[in-house]
């Protein structure tokens, strides 16, 4: 089992800040923002020492919960401050972006630090579509087309045009080109479309924030699709992003779980949330319709002392086929930095050495 | 651009060339756009109607296909190109655009190479002028063929039932004249060709892999490669609006078609 640490740029939120997405920029404190960025460097250097395999970053907008609207900028900055650990962009949000820009920026990273990056291509959560004014009803198809275009731009040796449904280019000709083959690339999502696309293009699959049953349905569908395309994915082809509460003992972890906020850190206002949910109708897990999660609480998938967590990880390997766990050791946006650093340290001492053989 | 709206009516005609009586369907006004079909023969699709709003479309049935008599005389695609050049001129056309599909692409390239004054520009749809070893034209029932030529056969109306005898005859003709997978003389001519050529490949083409597009781009000095997203081998049938937009723009502006002229102002 490989382990990844999900770095979110921890902005310590003052107690009196408005708790609603989007958060007014007036509430932003540059000094806290600068501290969040300094902390980012400290934490990635720490997890590299602890022995994590990857650091992951994501794209989120308009709130202090995750302070990395540009995963490419985050990844480039992190890469300059660590030595051997891989940096995973999980990932750029494809449907809201110019796919050629994504292809170029990822190719540039792959050129700056060959062999050090992992790429994930993401459809994105529903409220993120507001950031770049995307119709949620078009998100699925734009993602599929955008991903196809990115892969084409990475590999095509001659200039080409693209006559898409959503994207049109008459001249595409990438410099720099990424490594050939490009860095390991994952499609991120639990949908049938994500699984099928990843299978058809021989890419990995990254799933996130669900229980064992739903995640195993998604990866099961992916594996079945891979078989149809004549290949079978290995453990490294499946990433699971999940939350973990690790304590010295099971009781300590349960106590921390009980103390955990029952509300999401920056929920979307109810009327807007419901409108977004009804506008985003194509979400599914392995083809089975699934309501969009708009700013809701994310589940804790691992909870316990070291022994119990090791067992849970073993179970995840068996049921989901996951070979890379992408972990948060406290919820993003909660700001309990001490708890997180203790969790990372404890994980490195008590769990990491025991899951390598899983 | 939409498939709805008035479309010119195609009418059937015949023309004599090299001793062949060649059938064609024609509609529309303007600079002629001659269509040379693929190994499956002539079939008018909605895209012919769309194109006929802007062009005088002439869809030939090359000798050896469809209702024409068995063609035992033509020995190569280069010879077939000579015959088709004669047929085009017999219609009083001295200059035209050529649109060629799959098997027809090698014929069109020979025609442009041998008679550069005739072809103003070429559009090659999923061309089969360069093939991987072992590639053969699709065969089987209409359903089986649909699965091979479409990325989304479920979105297409049923293919018309073919005349089995004509199908066997056309297939034998294609296999006899189509030539080697790579034809050195043709490729040498392509490297010298000044005619603007638009090469289209569907990203889901299961018969003619879109990766073949790079060879055309590399060889043709004024060649332009465009991938049509989510289309199979029958690009113009599966993505007619996308096909007509890029084709029309290219035929009008040739290499300047890469310059976007679509306005993006939302509220002046």
Keywords, separated by commas or semicolons:
A: 358 residues; alpha/beta; TIM Barrel; two-stranded antiparallel sheet; 11 helices; 13 strands; B: 268 residues; Rossmann fold; 8-stranded mixed sheet; 8 strands; globular
Spatial extent as radius of gyration of chain B: 18 Å
Please state the second-level CATH architecture of chain A.
Answer: Alpha-Beta Barrel
- CATH class category name of chain B: Alpha Beta
Q: Quick one: CATH superfamily of chain A?
A: Luciferase-like domain
Share of β-strand residues of chain B: 15-25%
Give the count of structural domains of chain B: 1
**Could you describe the largest sheet of chain A, including whether it forms a barrel?**
8 strands, parallel, barrel
Measured on Cα atoms, how large is the radius of gyration of chain A? 20 Å
> Largest interface here, residues on each chain?
A-B, 17 and 22 residues
CATH topology description of chain B: Rossmann fold
Classified by CATH, the class of chain A is Alpha Beta
**Overall geometry of chain A:** globular
- Proportion of residues in helical segments of chain A: 40-55%
How far apart the termini of chain B lie comes to: 23 Å
Spans of at least 5 consecutive residues with low confidence of chain B: none
Quote the distance from N terminus to C terminus of chain A: 5 Å
CATH superfamily of chain B, called what?
Answer: Alpha/Beta hydrolase fold, catalytic domain
Structural class of chain B: alpha/beta
Structural description of this entry:
The complex is a heterodimer of chains A (about 350) and B (about 270). With about 350 residues, chain A is an alpha/beta fold. Chain A has one domain (about 1-355): Luciferase-like domain (TIM Barrel), CATH 3.20.20. Chain A is about 40% helix and about 20% strand. Chain A has helices at about 30-50, 70-80, 100-110, 130, 140-155, 190-200, 210-230, 250-260, 270-280, 305-320, 335-355; strands spanning about 1-5, 55, 85-95, 115-120, 160-165, 170, 185-190, 205-210, 240-245, 285, 290, 300-305, 325-330. In chain A, the strands form 3 sheets. Chain A has an 8-stranded parallel beta barrel, surrounded by 8 helices. Chain A has a two-stranded antiparallel sheet with strand order 5-6. Chain A is globular. Chain B has about 270 residues and is an alpha/beta fold. Chain B has one domain: Alpha/Beta hydrolase fold, catalytic domain (Rossmann fold), CATH 3.40.50. Chain B has 9 helices and 8 strands. In chain B, strands 1-2-4-3-5-6-7-8 form an 8-stranded mixed beta sheet, with helices on both faces. In chain B, helix 2 (about 75-90) crosses helix 3 (about 105-115) and helix 3 crosses helix 6 (about 185-190). The interface of A and B includes residues 145, 160, 161, 162 and 170 of A. Strand 5 (about 160-165) of chain A pairs parallel with strand 8 (about 225-230) of chain B.
């Amino acid at each position: 089992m490989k382990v990844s640490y999900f770095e979110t740029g921890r902005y310590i939120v003052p107690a009196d800040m408005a708790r609603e997405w989007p958060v007014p920029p007036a509430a932003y404190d540059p000094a806290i923002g600068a501290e969040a960025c300094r902390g980012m460097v400290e934490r990635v250097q720490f997890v590299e020492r602890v022995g994590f395999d990857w650091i992951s970053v994501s794209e989120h907008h308009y709130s202090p919960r995750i302070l990395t609207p540009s995963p490419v900028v985050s990844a480039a900055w992190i890469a300059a401050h660590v030595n051997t650990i891989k940096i995973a962009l999980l990932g750029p949000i494809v449907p809201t972006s110019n796919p050629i820009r994504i292809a170029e920026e990822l190719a540039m990273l792959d050129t700056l630090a060959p062999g050090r990056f992992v790429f994930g291509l993401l459809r994105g959560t529903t409220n993120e579509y507001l950031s770049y004014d995307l119709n949620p009803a078009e998100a699925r198809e734009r993602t599929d087309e955008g991903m196809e275009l990115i892969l084409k731009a990475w590999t095509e040796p001659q200039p080409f045009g693209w006559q898409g449904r959503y994207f049109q280019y008459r001249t595409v000709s990438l410099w720099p080109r990424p490594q050939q083959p490009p860095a390991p690339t994952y499609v991120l999502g639990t949908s049938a479309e994500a699984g099928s696309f990843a299978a058809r293009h021989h890419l990995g699959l990254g799933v996130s924030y669900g229980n064992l049953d739903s995640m195993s349905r998604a990866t099961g569908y992916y594996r079945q699709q891979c078989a149809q395309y004549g290949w079978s994915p290995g453990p490294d082809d499946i990433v699971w992003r999940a939350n973990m509460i690790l304590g010295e003992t099971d009781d300590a972890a349960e106590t921390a779980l009980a103390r955990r906020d029952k509300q999401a850190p920056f929920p979307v206002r109810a009327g807007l949330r419901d409108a977004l949910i009804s506008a985003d109708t194509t979400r599914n897990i392995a083809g089975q319709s699934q309501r969009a999660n708009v700013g809701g609480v994310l589940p804790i998938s691992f909870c316990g002392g070291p022994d119990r967590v090791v067992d849970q990880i073993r179970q995840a390997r068996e049921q989901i086929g996951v070979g890379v766990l992408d972990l948060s050791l406290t919820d993003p946006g909660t700001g309990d930095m001490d708890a997180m650093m203790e969790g990372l340290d404890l994980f490195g001492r008590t769990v990491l050495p025991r899951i390598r053989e899983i | 651009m939409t498939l709805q709206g008035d479309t010119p009516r195609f009418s059937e005609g015949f023309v004599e060339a090299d001793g062949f009586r060649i059938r064609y369907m024609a509609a529309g006004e303007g600079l002629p756009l001659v269509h040379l079909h693929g190994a499956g023969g002539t079939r008018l699709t909605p895209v012919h109607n769309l194109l006929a709003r802007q062009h005088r479309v002439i869809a030939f049935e090359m000798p050896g296909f469809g209702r024409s008599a068995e063609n035992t005389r033509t020995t190569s695609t280069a010879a077939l190109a000579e015959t088709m050049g004669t047929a085009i001129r017999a219609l009083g056309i001295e200059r035209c655009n050529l649109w060629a599909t799959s098997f027809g692409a090698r014929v069109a390239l020979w025609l442009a190479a041998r008679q550069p004054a005739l072809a103003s520009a070429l559009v090659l749809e999923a061309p089969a002028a360069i093939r991987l070893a072992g590639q053969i034209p699709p065969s089987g029932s209409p359903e089986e063929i649909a699965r091979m030529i479409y990325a989304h056969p479920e979105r297409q109306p049923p293919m018309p039932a073919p005349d089995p005898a004509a199908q066997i005859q056309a297939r034998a003709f294609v296999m006899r004249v189509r030539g080697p997978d790579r034809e050195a003389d043709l490729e040498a001519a392509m490297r010298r060709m000044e005619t603007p050529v638009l090469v289209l490949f569907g990203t889901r083409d299961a018969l003619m892999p879109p990766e073949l597009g790079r060879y055309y781009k590399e060889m043709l000095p004024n060649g332009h490669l465009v991938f049509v997203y989510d289309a199979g081998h029958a690009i113009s049938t599966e993505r007619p609006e996308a096909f007509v937009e890029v084709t029309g723009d290219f035929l009008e502006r040739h290499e300047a078609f890469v310059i976007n002229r679509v306005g993006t102002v939302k509220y002046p």
